[in-house]
Amino acid sequence: MVTSEVTVTLRRPHSEQRRFISSTAKRKVIRAGRRGGKTVGVAILAVQAFLDGRRVLYGAPTVEQLETFWREVKRALQPALDAQVYYKNETEHVIEVVGTENRLKAKTIFNADTARGDYADLLILDEWQLCDETAWTDVGAPMLIDNNGDAVFVYTPPSLRSSGMSRARDPLHAAKLYKQAEADTTGRWAVFHFTSHDNPHLVEAALGDMLLDMSAESYRREILAEDDDVSPNQLIYRAFDERTQVIPRFGIPGNWPRYVGHDFGGANPAALFFANDTATGYFYAYQEYFPGRGLSTYQHVQAFKEMTQGVTVLKRAGGSHQEDEIRQGYTAQGWPIQEPKIQNVNARIDRVRAMMEKNQVFVFSDLDRFLMEARTYLWRMDADGKITDEIHNKAAFHLMDAMAYILSDFTPERVESVKTKPVSYRGFAGRV
User: Fold this and answer.
1) Residues of the chain above pLDDT 70, percent
2) For 403-407, what is the mean pLDDT?
């Protein structure tokens, strides 16, 4: 008798996928951003379970999502399928070991009726936020009782973009399940949360293109996978109107003076560059600097000089009062940075917010890091759910600090209100 080996090749999971794949919890709830790799991750989990002899059932509310999962499992098992080690039915989306209970099946599931007629010892429910919750309570949970099976729930917090496709009775049922699982102390339940940015295989440029078409709310839910209800009053720069103040890049006239805000840090130094239209007083954020750790002060300064070659930088400001030694270090390298006039954090924010309310601050649409921070820059909530005057996770918002350091040195009232009128610079037409 001649035997041969067939190799099954699984994708190498990224760190966030590896966490839920390796978890031994019987019930897993995965909350992840769009294109964060959640479906690929559960496909790896499903193939591993199938190879271990288990009966796997994957369900998703849309054919498109089902096909994504099906392509992944077929890619991994293709050598074995080619060698006819397993039986495959493309119509039913089934791969199985003939004559056994060892099976992997994918089907559309969006309510109890569509979940009936199958059983498994590993049930995966993808895009769970769009499903009627009875798919689990009436059918999914009972099918796992006899064999003490496992269940995995995968979802992205719902937004207006997805509400029209939902079959859910309670639009927040997935979020409530996540919170219940998070509160579990028995080890039976486990929760996993990661964002679209956590997928190392996702090209940041492509993600940046996605952001241009998304509101702040959609970004927070669908990219950052946050499903807590945030009050509009919790957003620090809610006066920043993306519809009019985020604009396409245009060629900035060379005679416009430049201003730079700096935020210091050994791991994440940052800078934000503004051009000032002296005719209107408006400020245009046109370049962000966020190089990460590992560069010296000299290297930072060389980068700043290259960015501002041929233009006039009238002022650079940044850092707290206690960071004067850092400012002196930059000055010694030929890049003088001043201490901001206003040292109180909230007073700086108030000054910037006033400029935004007067429509004096504009941002180029390709400043992805800036937009990410502005959309998630929130006041912290206290234990009673009340908004405080402290910034939530303040240390993460380097460009927001850089902006406040430089723009707070300007008084919004110094510029008279200018009527909206069309202007153009090298083909750009917009509101200023």
Assistant:
1) 87
2) 97
Sign of CA dihedral 254, 283, 298, 197: negative
Structural domain includes residue 123: yes
Q: Which residues make Cβ contacts (< 8 Å) with residue 134, sequence separation at least 6?
A: 111, 112, 169
Give the end of a domain, one of 168, 191, 223.
223
Mean pLDDT of 266-274: 89
Distance between CA atoms of residues 109 and 393, nearest Å:
38
pLDDT score for 420: 38
pTM of the model: 0.57
Tell me how many domains the chain contains.
2
Sheet arrangement for strand 122-125:
87-89, 94-96, 103-108, 55-60, 122-125, 150-155, 27-32, 189-194
Helix (H) / strand (E) containing 329: helix 324-332
CB neighbour list of residue 395: distance below 8 Å, 6 or more residues apart: none
Q: Does residue 143 carry a pLDDT above 80?
A: yes
Kindly report the length of the chain. Answer: 432
Residues whose CB is less than 8 angstroms from the CB of residue 204 and which lie 6 or more positions away in sequence, other chains included:
197, 368
Residue-level pLDDT at 217: 64
pLDDT of residue 218 exceeding 80:
no
Q: List the structure tokens of 98.
A: 């003939």
Joined tokens for residue 56:
């796997």
Q: Taking the CB of residue 227, how many other CB atoms lie within 10 A of it?
A: 22
- Window from 1-10, 93-102, 325-334 with minimum mean pLDDT: 1-10
The answer to whether residue 1 sits within a structural domain is no
131-140, 166-175, 263-272, 330-339: the lowest-pLDDT one: 166-175
CATH at 410: 3.30.420.280
Query: For residues 368 and 219, is the Cβ–Cβ distance under 8 A?
Result: no
Q: What are phi and psi of 280, to 5 degrees?
A: -115, -20
Same-domain pairing of 217 and 239? no
More confident: 163 or 153: 153
Write out the residue range of the structural domain in which residue 386 sits: 232-431
Give the C-alpha distances (Å, rounded to integers) separating 233 from 3, 134, 416: 68, 35, 27
Same domain, yes or no: 203 and 287: no
Residues 6+ apart with CB under 8 A from 209: none
DSSP code at position 305: H
Whether residues 27 and 126 fall in one domain? yes
| Domain-terminating residue out of 170, 198, 223 | 223
